[in-house]
Amino acid sequence: SWEPGTPRLGAEDDKVEILSRDKYDVHLPFWCNLYLVAHYAVVFYGFFDLTDRYMGMTPISVLIFVFYIIASLTIIGMVFDNSKYAPILEALRCSALAFFTRSLSSTNPGLRNNSSILLRDISNVLVLTHFETSRNQED
After folding, report:
1. Total domains present in the chain
2. Positive or negative CA dihedral for 28, 33, 34, 35?
3. pLDDT (tens digit, 9 = 90+) per residue, 21-31?
4. pTM surpassing 0.85?
5. Residue at 71 is within a domain
6. Domain of residue 94, residue span
7. Do residues 127 and 87 touch, judged by C-beta distance below 8 A?
8. 55-66: per-residue pLDDT in tens?
């Protein structure tokens, strides 16, 4: 900073050299972006479903629902950032979604079939394959 007796912009000897950083920009394949947008839409729908039903739910059910929404948004962000923890957390999130879809779906019995398990398995394979190939390319 400026001190009396020095030039208006400070002494040249006191200036710190600032180095620019590389831009942080993660490139994901198009299918991965579609995958994340689709799963975000499911979470978005779940949020609005919660706002419609929360008065008829137990407080613990609402808390679990809110925790799932927050965790889902966090994990989706981790996948966008290509985090090393994202594959296992995404697999757990998809498994939790399949479990809750099968066990808590009393208003729509059509969701109780094996489609939720199939969706979970396809999601897990896609995400784990993407992260495995991206880790191999870094090495």
Report:
1. 1
2. positive
3. 888 888 888 88
4. no
5. yes
6. 26-138
7. yes
8. 888 888 889 889
